[in-house]
Each structure stands twice: as C-alpha cells, then as structure tokens.
C-alpha cells in the first residue's frame, strides 16, 4: 500500500478525493463502513485507517449526502451507508467537472 505525507494542502485534497470515492462506491449499492474501508484501500492503494474513514462517513451523513441504517446480525449490529438524493446529485455534478478537467489536460 502507498503511504503519502503531502502537507496540509495535500491532506485536504486527499480527503476530498476519498469523499468522492465514498460517494462513488455508494452509487452502486449500500455498504457497511468496513466494506467501504476495504474497497477504498483496494481502489486507491492507500493505507487508509478506520480512524480516518469513519469521521468522513459521519461528516457526509451529517451534511445530508449519505443516510445510514442499522441491521442486527446475530449479536452484531451492522451500520449500512446509502447515497442520498443530494449525494447522488452532487456526485453527478462532481463527475462532470472531473471529466472536463481531465479532458482539458489532454488538449493542452
């Protein structure tokens, strides 16, 4: 796994990219926090920790971009996260902007 120590600006950029990746993962299906963490590690190659991902999930939920619900499985309670309509709309706009940025890079 890759480990990056980019300074404050880089940290903010990486958090934004991880938020974008979370929304992208949840566009396809609802997932537990643990599943999101595993998929993020696989997708990004970054050595992400629960202590950095769960606060992002809570922040995205608090801002209305995600919703969550719990399911009892045996003795365990699993919290699933789901993309809200606002999250789906923001993700679509963000994908469009990202596409324009990357297409512009190829034209230069």
UniProtKB/TrEMBL annotation:
It comes from the Archaea. Pfam families: PadR (PF03551). Residues 22-91 form the Transcription regulator PadR N-terminal domain. This is Transcription regulator PadR N-terminal domain-containing protein. It comes from Thermoproteota archaeon. The lineage of its organism: Archaea, Thermoproteota.
């Amino acid at each position: 796994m890759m480990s990056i120590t980019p300074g404050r600006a880089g940290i903010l950029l990486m958090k934004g990219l991880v938020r974008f990746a979370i929304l992208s993962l949840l566009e396809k299906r609802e997932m537990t926090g643990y599943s999101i963490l595993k998929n993020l590690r696989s997708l990004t190659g970054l050595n992400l920790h629960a202590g950095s991902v769960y606060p992002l999930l809570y922040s995205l939920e608090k801002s209305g971009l995600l919703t969550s619900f719990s399911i009892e499985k045996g003795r365990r309670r699993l919290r699933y996260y789901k993309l809200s309509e606002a999250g789906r709309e923001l993700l679509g706009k963000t994908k469009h902007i990202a596409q324009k940025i990357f297409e512009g890079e190829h034209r230069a």
